[in-house]
Amino acid sequence: MHELDFLLGSLRCVFRTGSIRTARVRPILGGHYYQLDLTHVRPRTKERVRGSWVLGWDRVDASFVSYYFDDAGMQGTSASPGWQDGHFALTGSFVLGEPTQRVVIKSDITRIDEDHFTIEEHIEENGTWELLDTQECTRKR
Question: Whole-prediction pTM value?
């Protein structure tokens, strides 16, 4: 799990589309998992979504696993083999709240420095990856 220590603390992520996500990230269950308690705000509509994202290590499959859920009805699971060529990509199946549908999403994290990283989120459309949004994230310890 220590490969993800750069997430611990308070995060602020600004989306290319103007949304802002904040998170408090802490180790849980003896450090075997990290929990991100998130708040996502869309500035134009003032819509506020609260959710949780739990990350852990699957010793059998030797991969990171995650589970996400929020009060807008989105939920899903994803997995990652870990860092590859400077990227940490989680890919998995998610159910969107509105409209209700199942999709495959990939979140690709790239670290800039100890307290700065980016996330590119893609959705699979007919066998190709389409960019959903990008996030510029900073951390306070």
Answer: 0.91
